[in-house]
Design brief:
- By secondary structure, the protein is of the alpha+beta class.
- It is 29% helix and 28% strand.
- It folds into three domains: 279 residues, Bira Bifunctional Protein, Domain 2 (BirA Bifunctional Protein, domain 2, 2-Layer Sandwich), CATH 3.30.930; 38 residues, no CATH class; 92 residues, 3-Layer(aba) Sandwich (Rossmann fold), CATH 3.40.50.
- It has a seven-stranded mixed sheet.
- Helix 2 packs across helix 9.
- It is globular and about 75 Å long.
Length: 445
């Protein structure tokens, strides 16, 4: 399919409605009118978000012998942000509408017409706005007590470079992966969880010899694209876009974005940057500590170059939700909404559904439910007709349903496994149920 033929699989309004209705994502502080740029993950949303993080960690840390993990503090010494350039350069151009008093990022306006009130030529001159959120430590709120909520997780890796190198005795190339919260005082948070003020990142800083950095940058781009496809994202909705020279950050020697075709169109999903030696050099300069690596084969000290794949958990979760959404019409003309989530990403792996609430079925169904919970996240549902329950599970992306009926308790001690995507059904003995389900849950651990 060509890019001109692409259409969003779902509009944002429909997706937001599904997320609230089924317990994926809620507006933060909703009973008080909400807070812009902040969202809460509900019972299904937190499971899905955790699954996204597990899939990323598994592929990028657990399965690789050149990666280790880290969990650095959110609050850091303020000089960290002076060294990284965030205090001076982490800004966006902001304008106000004189008519309606709304604020916007100037670089995201298409014209001089205010998107809020429709007036033309009412914008103020742009002024630079620092995106870091400031707070204080200790009992006195003065400049000496000022710290910042980190705007990215990368800095925690750079300032721990020597600690990681010493304790793990790694040789180049090696990487450090981290998942954690970051905060940015966005002028205009919007598009659901696409752009928020509080978000979670999955970042890698991959340290390598300068002579190998270009090759490894290319390799990481291939590896990251393969990860999305491994977990079911459609290839025609993904693309790599290299930054033009004028787009590059001051430290970047080359950056490419993995872009996804969201309901809002093509937009950045992940950045894969060649940061050169900027970060280690800066932190060595400001801290007075030597942050280099002794290459025993070359018999020389080098400041490693860094490749940084950086992905937002929330934005990635949004992409998986949008990518998996489908609407179908059955033989009776009824609409079926399905999230065709990869089993590793789906919040619930198996649903146990007794045919009815009959007292003969409940004990067997409850026993199966208790057994399966030891292996996966499982949901028990006995409300309404079996058809309606199948539809509910389809809509939240559950790959498999297990139905307990009268034949189960009166005859064969077997149950029916129903598959989400094909709706095919197969009868299996309860004794071998866990194994049969495992065979149908690829890449799930």
């Amino acid at each position: 399919m060509s890019e001109t033929e692409l259409k969003p699989s779902v509009d944002m309004e429909t997706l937001v409605s599904l997320c609230k209705r089924r317990g994926f994502i809620f507006q933060s502080s909703e009973i008080y009118g909400g807070l812009a740029g902040a969202w809460d993950y509900g019972p299904l949303g937190v499971e899905m978000k955790n699954n996204v993080k597990r899939a990323w960690w598994r592929a990028n840390v657990q399965e690789r012998d050149d990666m280790v993990g880290l969990d650095a503090a959110i609050l850091m010494h303020p000089e960290v942000w002076r060294a990284s350039g965030h205090l001076d350069t982490f800004t966006d151009p902001m304008v106000d509408c004189r008519n309606c008093k709304s604020r916007f990022r100037e670089d995201e306006l298409d014209s001089d017409v205010c998107p809020n009130c429709g007036e033309r030529g009412t914008f103020t001159e742009p002024r630079m706005f620092n995106l870091m959120l400031r707070t204080f430590v200790g009992p006195v709120q003065d400049d000496a007590a000022t710290v910042y909520l980190r705007p990215e997780t990368a800095a925690g890796i750079f300032v721990n470079f020597e600690n990681v190198l010493t304790t793990t005795r790694r040789k180049l190339p090696f990487g450090v992966g981290q998942i954690g919260k970051s905060f940015r005082n966005e002028i205009t948070p919007r598009n659901f969880i696409f752009r928020t003020r509080e978000f979670e990142q999955m970042e890698i800083e991959y340290f390598c010899h300068p002579e190998e950095s270009l090759r490894l940058h290319d390799q990481w781009m291939r590896d990251r694209m393969a990860w999305y496809e491994r977990f079911g994202m459609k290839r025609d909705r993904l693309r790599l876009r290299a930054h033009a020279q004028e787009e590059l950050s001051h430290y970047s020697r080359g950056t490419s974005d993995v872009e996804y075709y969201f309901p809002i169109g093509w937009a950045e999903l992940e950045g894969i940057a060649h940061r050169g030696d900027f970060d280690l050099t800066q932190h060595a300069k400001f801290s007075g500590k030597e942050l280099s690596y002794f290459d025993e084969e070359r018999k020389e000290h080098v400041v490693p170059h860094v490749i940084e794949p950086s992905l937002g958990v929330d934005r990635c979760t949004l992409a998986f939700l949008a990518d998996s959404y489908a609407e179908e019409t059955d033989d009776k003309g009824e609409k079926r909404v399905v999230l065709r989530l990869h089993p590793a990403i789906a919040p619930i792996k198996v649903a146990v559904l007794p045919l009815s609430r009959n007292e003969k079925l409940t004990p067997a169904a409850r026993d199966i439910y208790a057994r399966l919970r030891k292996h996966w996240m499982v949901q028990y549902d006995d409300a309404q007709s079996i058809g309606r329950r199948y539809r509910r599970q389809d809509e939240i992306g559950t790959p498999l349903c297990v139905t307990v009926d009268f034949q189960t308790v009166e005859d064969d001690n077997a149950v029916t496994i129903r598959e989400r995507d094909s709706m095919a059904q197969v009868r299996v003995p309860i004794e071998g149920l866990a194994g049969a389900l495992r065979e149908r849950l690829p890449d799930v651990i």
